[in-house]
UniProtKB/TrEMBL annotation:
This is Twin transmembrane helix small protein. Keywords: Membrane, Transmembrane, Transmembrane helix. It comes from the Bacteria. The chain crosses the membrane at residues 6-24, 45-65.
Length: 70
């Protein structure tokens, strides 16, 4: 049962990281379009997505590296 728990958590977390990164890239591309009326809002959403993606990766490293979980 533990193997299924780890596999499910890995699948969900990988999907979240990939989704956040792809949303960040998409919002960056939309913000780069010169015809948009408010590129700052879309750029800030992109930065938020990238920050959440980085936070998820750092949290995963925190869980993996035994030095931090002592």
């Amino acid at each position: 049962m533990e193997l299924l728990t780890v596999a499910g958590a890995t699948l969900v977390s990988a999907a979240v990281v990939v989704t956040l990164y792809s949303l960040g890239v998409r919002f960056t591309a939309i913000a780069a379009d010169a015809q948009q009326t408010s590129p700052r809002v879309k750029r800030s959403f992109a930065n938020i997505c990238f920050a959440l993606c980085g936070a998820a990766v750092l949290f995963g490293l925190y869980l993996i590296i035994p030095y931090f979980t002592k």
